[in-house]
Design goal:
Radius of gyration: 20 Å
Strand content: under 5%
Number of strands: 0
Structural class: mainly alpha
Order of helices and strands: HHHHHHH
C-alpha cells in the first residue's frame, strides 16, 4: 500500500499541532506545580519548595522557547488558516502567559531565606485560600484551552474578581500588622509580594481563559473583565 505525499504532509502537520498542545499541557502542569509549591513555601515554610520551583523554572523557559520555535516553523511552512491558525497563534500567546506564571513563582522562591524564617502569621490561611482559588482557575483555564470550551473559559474569567478581593483583604490585614508592630514590617512586606504574585497568577489564568474562548469561537469575550477591589493595583495585567 502506498501513501501519497499529500497524506504525509497532512500527518506531519497534525503531529506538529499535537506537539504544540502537548508542550502547552506540560507548561500548564509545571505552572500549577510551581504555584502549589509557592503556597507550601509560605504556609509550611518548606525551603525545599524553593529549589523545586527554580528547577521547574528552567524547564518552563526551555519549553516556551520550543513553542515559539515550532510556531514560527508551522506558520512559515504550513500557512494555517481558520481554526488551525487560531490554535497556533493562541498556543504562542498562552506559552508566554505560562512562562510569566513561572516568573511570579520564581520571585517568591527567591524570598525563601526570609519566608522560611517567618514567625507563625495568621495570614497563612488567607494565602492558602487565595492559592487554592488561583490553582483552580488555572486548571480550569487550561482545560478550557485544551478542549476547547468557551463556556468554561467564561466561568474562569468571572472568578478573577474573587482573587482580587482576597488580595485586597490580605493587603489591608498586613498593613494593620505593620502599623501595630513595626517589628513585623519585613515579614509583612515579603508576604505582600507573595500575595501580589498570586493575584498576578490569577490574572494570567484569566488571560488563558480569554485565549481559550478565542480559540473556541474566533471572537474575544465581550464586556469589561470583572475586577474586585483594585485599590492596591499598581500595574497593568
Amino acid at each position: 500500500m502506498t501513501v501519497s505525499k499529500d497524506a504525509h504532509i497532512v500527518t506531519s502537520y497534525d503531529e506538529a499541532l499535537r506537539d504544540l498542545d502537548a508542550r502547552i499541557d506540560r507548561m500548564g502542569a509545571l505552572a500549577i506545580a510551581q504555584t502549589r509549591d509557592t503556597i507550601a513555601l509560605v504556609v509550611q515554610r518548606d525551603p525545599t519548595m524553593a529549589t523545586r520551583i527554580l528547577e521547574h523554572e528552567n524547564e518552563m523557559n526551555e519549553l516556551e522557547y520550543r513553542v515559539n520555535e515550532q510556531v514560527v516553523r508551522v506558520l512559515a511552512l504550513r500557512q494555517p488558516v481558520a481554526d488551525d491558525l487560531r490554535a497556533v497563534v493562541t498556543c504562542l500567546k498562552v506559552a508566554g502567559m505560562l512562562e510569566r506564571i513561572g516568573d511570579y513563582t520564581a520571585n517568591a522562591a527567591r524570598r525563601a531565606p526570609v519566608l522560611t524564617q517567618l514567625a507563625n502569621f495568621p495570614v497563612r490561611g488567607p494565602v492558602s485560600r487565595m492559592g487554592d482559588l488561583v490553582i483552580g482557575m488555572l486548571d480550569d483555564a487550561l482545560r478550557a484551552f485544551r478542549e476547547p470550551d468557551d463556556a468554561l473559559a467564561s466561568l474562569v474569567r468571572e472568578r478573577d474578581e474573587e482573587v482580587d478581593a482576597l488580595h485586597a483583604s490580605l493587603f489591608r490585614e498586613l498593613l494593620t500588622y505593620m502599623m501595630e508592630d513595626p517589628r513585623t514590617i519585613t515579614a509583612c512586606t515579603h508576604l505582600m509580594f507573595v500575595s501580589k504574585n498570586l493575584e498576578r497568577i490569577g490574572d494570567q489564568a484569566t488571560n488563558i481563559a480569554e485565549a481559550a474562548h478565542y480559540r473556541a469561537t474566533g471572537t474575544m469575550i465581550s464586556g469589561d473583565r470583572p475586577k474586585g477591589d483594585d485599590t492596591f493595583r499598581t500595574d497593568p495585567v
